[in-house]
Amino acid sequence: MNQNHPINSGRKYKDTVIRMLCQNPQRAIEVCNAVEGTNYPLTAHVEHHNIEDKLLGRYGDIICTIEKRLFLLSEHMSTLNFNMPLRILQYITDVIELAFLIKANLHSSIEVKIPTPKIFMLYNGRKKKESLPKIMRLSDAFILPDNQPALELIVKIIDISYGSGSEVLAKSPTLDGYAYFIHLIESGIKAGIGRDKAIATALEKCIKEDILADFLSENYGGLIDMLGYEYTVEDELRGRWMDGREEGREKGREEGREEEKIETALKMLEIGMSLDIIAKCVGRSVRWVEKLLIKKP
Questions:
Q1: Which residue from 123, 111, 121, 115 is spatially nearest to 161, judged by alpha carbons?
Q2: CA distances from 1 to 16, 226, 271 (A)
Q3: Could you report the per-residue pLDDT of 220-261, keeping only the tens digit for each?
Q4: pTM, whole model, 2 decimals?
Q5: Which residues pair with 121 in a beta bridge?
Q6: Phi, psi (5° rounding) for residue 234?
Q7: What is the DSSP annotation of 117-170?
Q8: Which of 2, 58, 195, 224 has its CA 20 to 30 A from that of 137?
């Protein structure tokens, strides 16, 4: 079975839905403004720093520079993991080294400047808001308490679960739409309609309601695979969703791309999606989908 799909074409790392959303610079600015309370214009310069996470073996976090701030936002959907500051420590230092220090002369008497780090956990789990800590500190893990730690890393926790009443969701249509999308999937699973059907139903409902519609339509086929894996694997080590596809080589032939569209359309037909939604998602006509339905074994 062909394992390539549009959202991961040519990529050699694992990914998450929330990170994919924020690869769009305007969405990244919107989300960072919401969590930090800044007011960057949508025309502000954004630079993403997508390095491989040596601890987790994947790319999964949103990490970018906007003007003079370095934002790291990590989604967390499973049981609350209090090791996040320790896990993030190496990751953030790797990013700073590779993105800002690789050409800097640290032996010079001139002080090297780096963007101000801002680190957030986007919590989308089931823990009640009242019991969520507001921050996690690296120093909380120290064996000996230290009122003035020589090394510190602070992670602010933001509740982005649907219905939480979070001010951040009110400020960010991207996070609000994402929270609603995840809520629909989990509600469908809880209702017993099955994981794949719940994902497909949530996708179709959001597209029809114009919630993240362009993103969901464009990446439909890959999202089914990605979310299906993320809901299958409870990975406490990572502490959040992960993409289950190791990306193969990028296809350069038109036949391969056509085969991919056919696979996606067949998958959508199997779970009962409407012909017009299928046609929109694969970039073909309704008549093309109808012919595929006739040929379907």
A1: 123
A2: 22, 15, 18
A3: 877 777 676 556 543 333 333 333 333 333 444 455 667 777
A4: 0.71
A5: 74, 157
A6: -90, 100
A7: EEEEEEE-SSS-GGGS-SEEEGGGG-SS--SS-SS--EEEEEE--TTS--HHHH
A8: 58
